[in-house]
Amino acid sequence: MRRLRIIHTESFRLAALFAVLFLGLAGVLMGLTYWIVEGTQRAELERVIDADIGTIENGFRGQGIREAVEVVQQRLGSDATNTDWTGEYIYLADGSGKRAGNLDALDEKVGLMWLTRPYRSPSDGARANGTSLDRGTSGRTLRPANRPDAYGRGTVLGKGVALANDVYLFIGRDTATIVATRTRLIHAFGWVTAITLLLAAAGGSVFSMQFLRRVDAIARTCNAIVAGRFNDRIALRGNDDELDRLAGSINLMLDRISELLENLQQVSSDIAHDLRTPLTHLRKRLEDARDKSTTVDHYSTAVTQAVEDTDELLGIFSALLRISQVDAGTRLAAFHELSLSGLLKELCAMYVPVAEDEGKSLQQRLMDGVTMDGDQELLTQLFSNLIENALRHTPSGTQVVVSVTVLPDAVVTTVADSGPGIPEHERAKVLRRFYRLSGSRSSRGYGLGLSLVNSIANLHGASLVLSDNSPGLKATVSFRRGK
Amino acid sequence: MNLLLIEDDIELADSLAAGFRDHGHSVVHAADGASGLRLAREPEHQVIVLDRMLPGLDGLSLVRQLRAAGVRTPVIFLTTMSGIDDRVNGLEAGAEDYLVKPFAFVELLARIRVLGRRPADQAVTVLRAGDVELDLLQRTLIRAGRAIELLPQEFRLLEYLMRNANRLVTRAMLLENVWDIHFDPQTSVVESHISRLRAKLNADSAVDPIQTIRGAGYKFLAPS
Ligand SMILES: Nc1ncnc2c1ncn2[C@@H]1O[C@H](COP(=O)(O)OP(=O)(O)OP(=O)(O)O)[C@@H](O)[C@H]1O
Ligand SMILES: [Mg+2]
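Structure tokens for the assembled complex are given below, as produced in the milestone run.
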């Protein structure tokens, strides 16, 4: 199974592809080598033939046909008919017929020619029968061949010359040596092929195994997550190769998913726990009204209060839904350019009378013409929540200042008050859902305001920082600026 | 007023219809989108109350088809969806108003009455009610011949109240139309602004045209 998987990996396929490419290249190289070597060898053969012709011709020019016959006999040695030792064929004839050589007869043609030696095999014999050159005696004749590329034992390259008017000399050489070279080349090529394939298979397997190991590691992590271990992450190698980058992206995705999952779990547990309290109150109130009310007035007060309780429950519901909707990030699509200065100016104008009615002051320190990309409605809610906190969780006489400042890389907005502030160790906790300081429990509110502020800030890529305004609380929302 | 109620929740529809009749409106009820669309094309309805989720044809496509057919009857959506997108989608489809279930009946009633007002009102440039005169172009307020300075938000508040004179406007309607606020503030924004407006408006006058309806909202009283 594992072996099959290796073959099906991309790296193995790649190794195979490279092997094939390499072999193709090697083949071309071999062909070229062969072509060059063969040309050289043929030229060498012709040179040897020319040299032999030269020797015999010298003899003939010097002392006539006798001398030529002698030279030929010397060359062929004792057995004048044996061609197998040297692969050399000689035929010397004059007007009276053959004078010397190891061929019985020959078509006396001048120039370079290709010939074959007939074989004794029946088919060769049958083929040879048709030609006029074959005089029947085996090994002693040659017949013309028209395929000069059919080298090999029995294929002969030769040259005929007329030494004088009626003196004809032929010298031929067997081409077996060329074939031997070819065979050696083919063998070498065979070895190269075999070694290449072996290396490719081995290398491909090793790489694929490594690849598979890492893919298996990724798959194992994913399976672990499926099995419920949501915090598992794929180990990175740190070399930033493609698998590492893939694993990094998967890890990022897992982070986001577990964030959303946590969010979902949080919302469900919030609903389970925190809606229980107001529901219990509501139920108790209705029960009391049923059991204890004696007058219509009693009843109507109880019902009015029950309606108020219901409205509070609905308020919690829609606040929770809003937070989870913002966290899901679907609102990003509705972003457009808006005037942050304008938005804050309107909000301040809206809350100034509220502040004054409660004996507080609300001032604005706004730079003009500050724009940004965002969701108008959500940003309105964000600053409204901060301003309302500064008005609701502070005593009368408190001063609230809303500001917006443009820095080179950020737009910084603050809502600062001079109230009691939030102790440092509580600042992270108040961002949690339903978390309220013990002093605020008696006042209206769900403890969801800052959670929503945080979510909206996150959606805008902004950070929410709560700090000490000494005295009071300073909420800073910094939007990144970059274009 | 003649109302068309398109709502598939029979229990809710019955109770709404009874409530409308108690307040002197006549109601025609359709329980699904197809028959609702057929009835909505008839011109005698003044306001259509439309559930967003309907069997067959949903509310959103119903409004689109209605508007495409040239029917201009005002539509108010009732919906269980409270997403921000949902409201925007509803208004873009051609509805005039939007109310999330569950809601207070007075809220729906107030919105229907406002929707049912004659559209010709929109072209008016000066709003007059008794001795109060609001010039929408000059952005000035004159009461009993004396000019009164208003802040921009106070001006918008008074404009909305006067446009809907003698009709109840709820806190949520004021927040939406005057401040473009679509959530429930935890402070007395509306109350504070009304009291500022009242103080300016009534500085030299014994009659307060802005009536507070407890637990519901406000009404600008105009002598007819
Ligand atoms: N400006 C502030 N000064 C002092 N305490 C504050 C301030 N803002 C927030 N807090 C504390 O942080 C808690 C959480 O604030 P958050 O806005 O999340 O909830 P809330 O205001 O109580 O209720 P709501 O959901 O209506 O906003 C508050 O209950 C309050 O105790
Ligand atoms: Mg708050």
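The radius of gyration of chain B is 19 Å. The interface with chain A takes residues 82-85, 88, 100, 102, 151-153, 179-189, 192-193, 195-196 of chain B (CB under 8 Å). Further analysis is deferred to the final report.
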